[in-house]
Design a protein that fits this description.
Elements lengths: L1 H39 L6 H5 L10 E3 L6 E3 L4 E4 L2 E4 L19 E7 L1 H4 L9 H11 L4 E5 L7 H10 L8 E7 L29 H6 L4 H6 L5 H21 L2 E7 L5 H14 L2 E4 L13 E3 L2 E4 L1 H24 L1
Parallel strand pairs: 5-6, 5-7, 7-8, 8-9
Antiparallel strand pairs: 1-2, 3-4, 10-11
Helix pairs in contact: 4-10, 5-8, 8-9
């Protein structure tokens, strides 16, 4: 009798534990579903959409180079990246097609930058520079803005692009799309040199996005906490001086736009001082975000690149910088 009671009690305990385990599993699946819905929308349940968030190498949008750039965008791409159409022209630029020769009476600008300038996560026509170009030409200003931005690039890649890859397009001015969060990074100090990697066969759909989301709840702190050190300022001064010397030799104007969706007044002021000392036209695009909710201007907490609304705001100061450079060009 006693043994039967023990067996019955043991069976009930086992059933309770099993029920608790099943409830936990179901709860985790529900929470995972909510996390995906919040982060990706209904696309969170689409394997192809989620997998479009692969890194720049696994997404198979890059080719290797034999120079300091290490990698470049593939030519004539027709794919999806970060849930947006991703296309490149015959020159490997994420932009519409342009001729090598500048059209008569046009003012042509070359934009050099990283993923912010490449416009990762928005359609090419929604990028801040495309919006500016469209606005100028709508009012008959005859402006062409060529996008040389590539995700993962830093100051050394900018210089290589400037030295060897854009002059055949006959630009009248150059604008550095300076990413306020990482363009002060130095190899060996902040990061290792990023080299081309062959695409891996990875599937992001089966990751836990609930876990990843919890890990990014303080993403705003991560965007604002970096403050330039003395070595960062010296590095930026050296690189920007080099860029300015190249532009002077080519007799083109140089501008720099400070890109970001959060504002760091110390970093901005230091960058402004460096540009003033180097003779570079400077404009800050970050201060306009100071009183705004960051989450309204990013793709999602797991990816803080600017969304369409963010690029629209960035296009306003960028247009002002273009006006400054164009006026300088016309007054020559």
């Amino acid at each position: 009798m006693m043994n039967n009671q023990k067996r019955l009690l043991s069976r009930k305990t086992g059933l309770k534990l099993m029920n608790i385990f099943i409830i936990l599993i179901v709860t985790m699946f529900i929470l995972e579903g909510f996390a995906r819905l919040y982060l990706f929308g209904w696309n969170g349940f689409s394997p192809s959409a989620v997998n479009s968030y692969k890194n720049i190498f696994d997404a198979d949008i890059m080719d290797p180079t034999d120079d300091r750039r290490e990698f470049k965008l593939k030519k004539n791409l027709r794919t999806e990246y970060k849930m947006r159409d991703f296309r490149t022209n015959k020159f490997g630029m994420r932009d519409k097609s342009y001729g090598l020769s500048k059209p008569k009476d046009f003012f042509r600008i070359a934009v050099i930058g990283d993923s912010y300038s490449m416009a990762a996560g928005v359609k090419e026509e929604e990028s801040f520079h495309s919006l500016a170009e469209k606005k100028f030409n709508k009012h008959g200003k005859k402006v062409e803005i060529l996008n040389f931005g590539v995700s993962g690039y830093g100051m050394d890649q900018y210089i290589t692009v400037l030295k060897d890859h854009l002059w055949k397009f006959e630009p009248d001015a150059v604008i550095i799309g300076f990413c306020s969060y990482n363009d002060h990074y130095q190899e060996g100090i902040h990061t290792k040199r990023v080299k081309f990697q062959k695409p891996r066969d990875v599937n992001l759909f089966w990751k836990s996005y609930l876990y990843n989301w919890i890990g990014t709840l303080d993403y705003e702190d991560g965007l604002t906490r970096n403050q330039y050190k003395k070595s960062d300022i010296q590095f930026l001064r050296k690189k920007l001086n080099e860029i300015q010397r190249i532009c002077v030799e080519k007799n083109v104007s140089l501008g720099l736009i400070n890109l970001g969706i959060t504002h760091n007044s110390y970093n901005t002021n230091k960058l402004r001082e460096i540009c003033a000392d180097c003779g570079i036209h400077f404009i800050d695009a970050t201060k306009q975000f100071s009183s705004k909710k960051t989450r309204d201007y990013i793709l999602m907490p797991l990816d803080t690149h600017p969304n369409e609304a963010g690029h629209l705001l960035l296009s306003y100061p960028f247009s002002n910088l273009v006006k400054t450079l164009r006026n300088e060009y016309l007054s020559d």
